[in-house]
């Protein structure tokens, strides 16, 4: 152990996305190759001697306790646990986290050491995995609020690969078999009698971990929400969501010592008539079983919306993935200027 193929695969995956900045400690990890990476895992991260590193992925992550702080992480999947090696700036990002993160190493802050926090979620504590719309993200849920993490891969391929690897690793776990299911009728099996609403698709793995996928109703709900934001300009039956993608909105700051830009996470939704940017809550929905009250904010909050017919031009950058797009709209104060011009205005 490990095989040459696995080491090559992990080395290829060990690349930080170019548009995201990380601390020196994570840059060090990203510079490791092959056997050095595996040895680093066993000497610094692994909790037991006989666990095997199976998969590595770089992703932005969100924690249930700190839903507004998105942080870069190196996600390592072994045969025993999922490890989130976090950017050390995360610990200082929010004063409310002092109870969540133990700052035992604060005396080392000014030394030459570069420290990283490592959040560990043992596979035996894993209860469910919720896959987001169009595989843009997934949420891992354990037994408490401390054990809920969303990985914002913004990439269906990375999501799919991680889920496949996770299922394979879970198959190795020895768990007591589930009790025999009680025979149910159709309605109790596929619907909730209290709400009359169809449940999301569930796949219960042999390890008893649930893998939950969104159903068609979620797209319908999203289309209805989008139609509401359009103030009834479009009739709902003809409204189609053509594209749903997790992206970043670039805010450019000029006049500073060096022109800098910050990336604001946004959900971009394209319909046949409009382009929308939403602030989406990726971590609170669907509600975990132990939640006593609904989240403080809605799942989707409209940040910006423009009509496609006001779009003047689209500027494309020449860099490699991820591609930068600039949408230039006609700056018309009254959007509906042309709507009421009928023949009556021109007389006979």
TrEMBL record:
<dbReference type="GO" id="GO:0032418">
    <property type="term" value="P:lysosome localization"/>
</dbReference>
<dbReference type="InterPro" id="IPR057288">
    <property type="entry name" value="PH_PLEKHM2"/>
</dbReference>
<dbReference type="InterPro" id="IPR053015">
    <property type="entry name" value="PH_domain-containing_M2"/>
</dbReference>
<dbReference type="GO" id="GO:0019894">
    <property type="term" value="F:kinesin binding"/>
</dbReference>
<dbReference type="GO" id="GO:0010008">
    <property type="term" value="C:endosome membrane"/>
</dbReference>
<dbReference type="Pfam" id="PF25625">
    <property type="entry name" value="PH_NISCH_C"/>
</dbReference>
<dbReference type="GO" id="GO:0032880">
    <property type="term" value="P:regulation of protein localization"/>
</dbReference>
<dbReference type="Pfam" id="PF23142">
    <property type="entry name" value="PH_PLEKHM2"/>
</dbReference>
<dbReference type="GO" id="GO:0007030">
    <property type="term" value="P:Golgi organization"/>
</dbReference>
<keyword id="KW-0963">Cytoplasm</keyword>
<feature type="domain" description="Nischarin C-terminal PH">
    <location>
        <begin position="241"/>
        <end position="347"/>
    </location>
</feature>
<dbReference type="InterPro" id="IPR057714">
    <property type="entry name" value="PH_NISCH_C"/>
</dbReference>
<feature type="domain" description="PLEKHM2 PH">
    <location>
        <begin position="114"/>
        <end position="178"/>
    </location>
</feature>
<protein>
    <submittedName>
        <fullName>NISCH protein</fullName>
    </submittedName>
</protein>
């Amino acid at each position: 152990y490990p095989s040459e193929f696995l080491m090559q695969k992990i080395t290829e995956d060990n690349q930080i996305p170019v548009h995201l900045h990380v601390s020196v400690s994570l840059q060090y990890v990203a510079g490791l190759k092959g056997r050095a990476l595996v040895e680093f895992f066993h000497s610094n991260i692994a909790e037991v001697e006989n666990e095997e590193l199976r998969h590595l992925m770089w992703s932005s992550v969100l924690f249930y306790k700190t839903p507004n702080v998105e942080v870069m992480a190196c996600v390592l999947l072994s045969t025993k646990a999922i490890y989130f090696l976090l950017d050390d700036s995360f610990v200082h990002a929010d004063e409310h986290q002092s109870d969540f993160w133990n700052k035992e190493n604060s005396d080392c802050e000014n030394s030459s050491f570069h420290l990283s926090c490592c959040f560990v979620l043992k596979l035996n504590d894993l209860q469910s995995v919720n896959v987001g719309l169009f595989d843009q993200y997934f949420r891992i849920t354990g037994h408490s609020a401390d054990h809920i993490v969303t990985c914002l891969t913004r990439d269906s391929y990375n999501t799919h690969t991680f889920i496949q690897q996770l299922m394979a690793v879970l198959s190795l776990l020895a768990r007591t078999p589930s009790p025999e299911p009680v025979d149910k009728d159709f309605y109790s099996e596929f619907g909730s009698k209290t709400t009359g609403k169809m449940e999301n698709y569930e796949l219960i793995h042999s390890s008893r971990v649930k893998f939950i996928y969104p159903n068609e109703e979620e797209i319908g709900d999203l289309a209805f929400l989008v139609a509401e934001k359009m103030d009834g300009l479009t009739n709902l039956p003809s409204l189609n969501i053509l594209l749903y993608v997790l992206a970043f909105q670039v805010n450019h700051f000029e006049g500073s010592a060096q022109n800098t830009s910050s990336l604001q996470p946004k959900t971009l939704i394209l319909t046949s008539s409009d382009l929308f940017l939403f602030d989406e809550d990726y971590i609170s929905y669907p509600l975990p079983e132990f939640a006593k009250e609904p989240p403080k904010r809605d799942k989707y909050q409209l940040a910006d919306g423009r009509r496609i017919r006001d779009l003047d031009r689209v500027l494309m950058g020449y860099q490699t993935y991820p591609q930068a797009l600039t949408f230039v709209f006609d700056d018309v104060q009254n959007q509906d200027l042309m709507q009421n011009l009928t023949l009556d205005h021109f007389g006979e």
